[in-house]
Design goal:
By secondary structure, the chain is an alpha/beta fold. It contains 16 helices and 29 strands. This is NAD(FAD)-dependent dehydrogenase.
Length: 555
């Protein structure tokens, strides 16, 4: 733990752990302010855990979550009030200390000189955030901008970002490419379904980001705060600007854990779990294994979400485990789906319904999870009635697998790149932004009407790589994305319905029907999911090897 003083009674630090709290007590701190939202990273301790440790140590803990670049002036005012009221000395923390330092600088903008702010900020070894246009006092309190420039800048180091970078380098080994991403770890998220079923170990789905960034690619380890497309720049932590000739945006999706009241406070205990988080998928497997009857709920929020089949994958594998353990008959399974259909491509519904009926699953369409009371084991849903009105219904549970609502990241939704719904506005074929010809996007944050899956990103990455080079005049013709998506629906241990489709829900099987009938459960498809797709991801997609993913080109 690194503690850096900003003022006599205020210090900042990067993310702290529960074990650090006792050290803070020894150092004499009487208050802790958390500026990091829960769920920013899969392995970060929640504020609830920090607050519990602080309470035992006699330290007051306050939760003031700050999304990078969002509402900083308002949050600075709140932080100033907290600094005046809380017992002192105070420690404020976030991921790196940047946000806490920034709020201090902004709250003091009218009382300290630029030199003082710069000196203290540098002494804290923590940059300030982006300049807020139009506020000269705030600008004076922030550090100076440092700029970098690259031919291609990629925002996001997930599956899509690494794949695009590798595809670019495979096409042009001398291409100047940079990836901007603050994460230390890269995850194979499609594997979390099997972690939640006790088939994969969670550790096998994670590798260091450093080992995944392709050789020769510049890695800028920072969070993006804003886009300035008119000046061809991206603003990152510290107010620094990274300029580009071409920009590729693929920051993933925001899983809004705070979108369900009471969820964050009870995740990972009281039978409340989710395979959408690395650290919780093993808890799913443990809950399912220990289940000896009772009520199990599975939820699916309104679309769009990452991997629309994942909520029911968890349900089917859980039911199969309970059937194998002889407890399915004594387990009431309910699927609360905010939508009106089991799956978005009708051709796959008959096979899925056979399993729904076999497992005795009670389907509840038009139900959106609104709140959870973990201590009471009760979930509250908003139900849409036949006349379009809504009411609230409650259901008790012994176990609940939650999929929270999802949106584009905040810095995307508030940017010039977003459409009215907050998603990056792209041409569905070329994946070029509809307004800015030097910007491309792919992955979960775009508004193209395709499934948000790793399989989609695997097909999109070569299209974007080719079109970026075409826009720079380095290759002829353009490439088109056909909307391909794939969802290996794990309906039982050893069998998968391999859903593959393109725009419009048209089936697009990769294999002949005599080998794998994509509309029926298949053992060979399970082998593909369990044994083939993970190495294809790590050693193919992330390495720029476009096996079965070569893009179609047009004049």
């Amino acid at each position: 733990m690194i503690v850096r003083p900003l003022a006599t009674d205020l210090s900042v630090s990067p993310q702290i752990s529960t074990t650090d709290v006792s050290t803070l007590q020894e150092l004499g701190f009487r208050s802790i302010v958390c500026h990091r939202p829960d769920g920013e990273a899969p392995n970060q301790p929640s504020f609830r855990e920090i607050a519990h440790a602080a309470n035992l140590a006699g330290i007051q803990a306050i939760y003031q979550p700050v999304v990078p670049g969002q509402g900083l002036i308002e949050e600075a005012v709140v932080f100033a009030a907290l600094c005046a009221e809380l017992p002192k000395p105070i420690l404020a923390y976030c991921r790196t200390g940047t946000r806490s330092t920034t709020l201090w600088a902004m709250s003091r903008a009218g009382n300290v000189t630029s030199a003082m702010a710069r000196e203290r900020t540098q002494r804290a070894e923590s940059d300030s955030a982006t300049v807020v246009p139009g506020n000269k006092d705030v600008q004076a309190a922030l550090v100076e901008v440092v700029e970098a420039e690259h031919t291609v800048v990629i925002v996001g180091g997930g599956a899509a970002g690494i794949a695009v970078a590798s595809s670019l380098r495979a096409r042009d080994p001398k291409m100047d490419v940079a990836i901007i991403d603050p994460a230390d770890t890269h995850y194979y998220q499609p594997g979390w379904t099997l972690v939640g079923a006790g088939i994969f170990d969670a550790a096998d789905t994670a590798r260091t980001m450093a080992s995944c960034v392709p050789p020769g690619i510049h890695w800028i380890k920072a969070a993006v705060l804003a886009f300035e497309p008119d000046t061809h720049a991206v603003v990152i932590e510290g107010g620094r600007k990274v300029r580009y000739q071409r920009l590729v945006v693929c920051p993933g999706i925001k899983v809004n854990w705070h979108g369900v009241e009471g969820l964050v406070e009870t995740l990972g205990r009281n039978g409340v779990t989710s395979n959408y988080r690395f650290d919780l998928a093993p808890y799913t497997a443990d809950l399912v294994k220990r289940m000896r009857g009772g009520t199990a709920l599975f939820t699916q929020p309104p679309m769009p979400i990452k991997c629309a089949g994942a909520p029911q994958k968890a349900m089917y594998l859980s039911c199969d485990t309970w059937r194998r353990n002889g407890v399915l008959q004594s387990t009431q399974v309910q699927f609360f789906n905010a939508g009106a259909a089991l799956f978005g491509v009708p051709d796959y519904v008959p096979a899925l319904m056979e399993y729904v009926e076999s497992y005795g699953i009670d389907l509840r369409f038009g139900h959106t999870l609104r709140s959870i009371d973990g201590s009471r084991g009760r979930a509250t849903f908003e139900r849409v009635l036949a006349d379009g009105s809504t009411d609230r219904v409650e259901s008790d549970f012994d176990m609940i697998h939650v999929v929270p609502p999802q949106t584009a990241p905040d810095f995307v939704r508030s940017s010039p790149l977003a459409d009215a719904a907050g998603w990056i506005d792209v041409d569905r074929g070329t994946l070029c932004h509809t307004k800015y010809e030097d910007i491309y996007a792919l992955g979960d944050a775009i508004n193209a009407p395709n499934a948000k899956t790793a399989a989609a990103a695997r097909k999109q990455a070569p299209v974007v790589a080719h079109n970026v080079l075409a826009s720079l005049g380095r290759v002829a013709r353009i490439a088109l994305y056909d909307g391909y998506g794939s969802c290996p629906l794990t309906v039982e241990h050893g069998k998968v319905v391999l859903a593959e489709f393109v725009y419009g829900g048209k089936l697009a099987p990769s294999f002949p029907a005599w080998l794998i009938d994509s509309t029926r459960p298949s053992r060979l498809a399970w082998f593909l999911k369990e044994r083939v797709l993970p190495p294809l991801y790590w050693n193919g997609m992330l390495k720029g090897r476009e096996w079965m993913a070569r893009p179609a080109q047009v004049e």
